[in-house]
Amino acid sequence: MANLNWEGIYPAVLTPFDKHDDIDFSMFEKNTEAQIDAGVHGIILAGSLGEASALTSNEKFLLLEKAIEIVRGRVPIILNLTENTTKDAVEFAQRAEKIGANGLMVLPPMRYKADDREVVAYFKAIAQSTSLPILVYNNPVDYATYISLDMLEELLQEPTIQAVKESTRDLANVTRLKNRFGDRLKVLGGVDTICLESLMVGADGLVAGLVDAFPNETMALYNLVKAGEYSKAVELYRWFMPLLELDIHPKLIQYIKLAATYEGICTPYTRAPRLPLIGEEKVRIEKIIGDAIAVRPHLTALNYATN
Predict the structure, then answer these.
(1) Which family does the UniProt entry place this protein in (predicted)?
(2) Single pTM value for the model
């Protein structure tokens, strides 16, 4: 079984497309290098922000192959698993391991809202089919399934299930998880607008969204918390918040791709049914991004960066 410490910043990376609706692998490489240069601890492919719902399985595996070529072992590569049936999920996990993924982020069954017993059985079947470390994605707001502490207790019987992406939007759940499981379960905050609070109450790291556009600022925030520089972290966080709020909207992909395009590390294109921003919405989101960039902190000059 591969080993991951599940600590630090894990971008849920974007999947750039070109104007012909094909994956733009040169821009994917550019964004990936920007993440690694900033010091991230791993990358997660084909997550919600990576437009998992718009990618074919073959495209997801092609992304994995390209990421392996680009990353060259510098950070772990996690592939997101979103399948409708247990059989397909098992086959996906095994293929990901064969190609060379370092871990999996696994969502509950898609389309069918399984009950607790079914969800546990689904995760266990995947865990028993592969030696890859698994990050369980707990996001009842967007995916309707709540993975309770009791369910996680059952799941931890499987040694490959090692971490949870905590996206319930209930900050207290980080503490509940730490109180219940201690070091047995790593906790990664999954909601950008409470990322600082999550770290300060004990989350081991973040699966982040705006890091896709602002990797250096995200890493500075994490490093400041780890160094105990809380007042500087709060100051940076307050600058960041208007951007972080782009992560908690149904159009988060359009918004964050636009921000990353402003930074020169993505394209704005999404796959239909997602359409380009227009009118007042486009003006409003561009203003949020432009206003933040205009007053962005100089990390080194202000001693925000601690790495």
Answers:
(1) Belongs to the DapA family.
(2) 0.96
